[in-house]
Design goal:
- Helices cover 28% and strands 22% of the residues.
- It has 464 residues and is of the alpha+beta class.
- The protein has three domains: 86 residues, Uridine Diphospho-n-acetylenolpyruvylglucosamine Reductase, domain 2; 123 residues, Uridine Diphospho-n-acetylenolpyruvylglucosamine Reductase, domain 3; 208 residues, Vanillyl-alcohol Oxidase, Chain A, domain 3 (3-Layer(aba) Sandwich), CATH 3.40.462.20.
- The longest helix is centred in the middle third of the chain and has 14 residues.
Length: 464
């Protein structure tokens, strides 16, 4: 058993400073509180501070910093790299800070950092509004937004960070700041893509957009032997698709679930996950060529609630599964890239493994690469290699497969990567994530966190 490095008397003092519970290994709730979405990480922090407000966050930061303890910050906890949990140090857990308030008159949203997209979608759709959110409803709003944030609405309304209007931030020095275009604009620039490097965001103000509760969405699944033709069709279709359309081609292993034809259960297939965020009748016309391609084994595209589409991947991304991630931005979906994808995806390892393409364009590309910390405005699409498996004995082989696949895609890659998709073992991950904006982020790190207190992240260190 690991012995805590934190003095019990100090913990008693911390408990008097915060309104939320402070959990240690002696507490019955500790084991549940230390579990994170990614089953690869089984860590034992010295204390978990379950904050109820920004004052609790400031107290937790001061406690950890004064004792030189590592501090992990957790909001939603959907994390490929294990940054939301640590051994021996302090976890600053924001999950109790989860209020969601919609102002339909101004079409804005005020959300605390512990909220998840499922709660946001329910509240905003009650007013016929939405903003770009995660395609898994259990993903946390804060980490998703601060890293970038791509979803079904990204081509129409931009990244989640493009819809960020302001943020409340606790700095490494325990100061409470407001960041927006008018207040601390340099910090606001850094937060939009720079993740958790510059402070703990405790609340976000987001822009909302009109979205009818019903969208045209669903899946069109083809056998793997048709995948080449499907990807070539996808390339041409998305080149001219209206911005209201988002389509993700997934290579997946069909689960043994009754909704899928028994003949393809357990087999690798290509699944076009599509959403038209606009008039349903117009969507029927626009998506007709996609649905008419070849001989799909399943077509579920139909009018359905946007909140249902936002939850479609929840079952396949269950907590406790072992997850890893490798990703690239691509210059184009070339014929050679398609062949590489098919060669590596033919035998997907792990029951939950997915490989998918994420198209950009539209509103994403209308913003300059240096307008926010997120620089990848003009890459047409990204590839995410996303293995999921259950047995620790398979760790080495599954990770090796993902790395080999990733390396094979390098000739078609831009050299950049979406920071939220980093696996944590990339030696130049932050430089690849921030590209030409990296130097400016280093300077702002020196200003807002010169000792690199916030380092359990895809770290921008306060030195070149």
């Amino acid at each position: 058993m690991r012995v805590s490095l934190i003095d019990p008397h100090a913990l008693q003092s911390l408990r008097k400073q915060v309104s939320g519970p402070v959990l240690t290994a002696d507490d019955a709730a500790y084991d549940a509180a230390r579990r994170v979405w990614n089953g690869r990480f089984d860590r034992r922090p010295g204390a978990i501070v379950r904050c109820r407000d920004a004052a609790d966050v400031r107290a937790a930061v001061g406690f950890a910093r004064s004792r030189d303890l590592p501090a992990a910050v957790r909001s939603g906890g959907h994390d490929f790299a294990g940054n939301s949990i640590c051994d021996d140090g302090v976890v600053i857990d924001l999950s109790l800070m989860n209020s969601v308030a919609v102002d339909p008159a101004s079409r804005t949203l005020r959300v605390q950092a512990g909220a998840r997209w499922g709660a946001v979608d329910r509240k905003t759709q009650a007013f016929g509004l939405a903003t770009t959110g995660g395609t898994v409803s259990t993903v946390g709003v804060a980490g998703f937004t601060l890293g970038g944030g791509s979803g079904y609405l990204v081509r129409k309304h931009g990244l989640a960070l493009d819809n960020l209007l302001a943020a409340d931030v606790v700095t490494a020095g325990g100061e409470q700041l407001r960041a927006s275009e008018r207040e601390n604009p340099d910090l606001f620039w850094a937060l939009r893509g720079g993740g958790g490097n510059f402070g703990i965001v405790t609340a976000l103000d987001l822009r909302l957009h009109e979205l009818r509760p019903q969208v045209l969405a669903g899946q069109v699944i083809h056998r793997f032997d048709a995948a080449g033709d499907v990807l070539r069709f996808y390339r041409a279709f998305m080149a001219d698709a209206p911005e209201a359309v988002q389509c993700y081609p997934f290579l997946i292993r069909i689960p043994p679930v009754s909704v899928f034809p028994e003949a393809i259960q357990g087999q690798v297939a290509i699944d076009l996950v599509v959403c038209h965020a606009g008039d349903v009748a117009e969507g029927e016309r626009i998506l007709a060529p996609l649905r008419g391609l070849g001989k799909p084994v399943l077509d579920t595209v139909a009018p359905l609630p946007y909140v249902a589409q936002q939850q479609a991947f929840d079952a396949g991304t269950a907590p406790g599964t072992r997850w890893y991630s490798k990703a690239h931005y691509l210059r184009e979906l070339s014929d050679s890239a398609i062949e590489t994808i098919l060669a590596h995806a033919e035998n997907l390892p792990g029951a939950f493994t997915m490989v998918y393409l994420d198209a950009q364009g539209g509103a994403v590309g209308r913003i300059a690469a240096d307008a926010t910390a997120f620089p990848h405005r003009h890459a047409p699409l990204a590839i995410h290699i996303f293995p999921g498996w259950t047995e620790p004995a398979d760790d080495a082989s599954v990770v090796a497969w993902a790395r080999s696949f990733h390396q094979a895609m390098s000739p078609d890659a831009t050299g950049g990567v979406y920071v939220n998709m980093l696996g944590g073992d990339e030696p130049d991950g932050p430089r690849s994530a921030y590209g030409s904006n990296y130097g400016r982020l280093v300077e702002l790190k020196k200003k807002y966190d010169p000792t690199n207190f916030f380092r359990m992240n895809h770290n921008v260190a306060p030195s070149a």
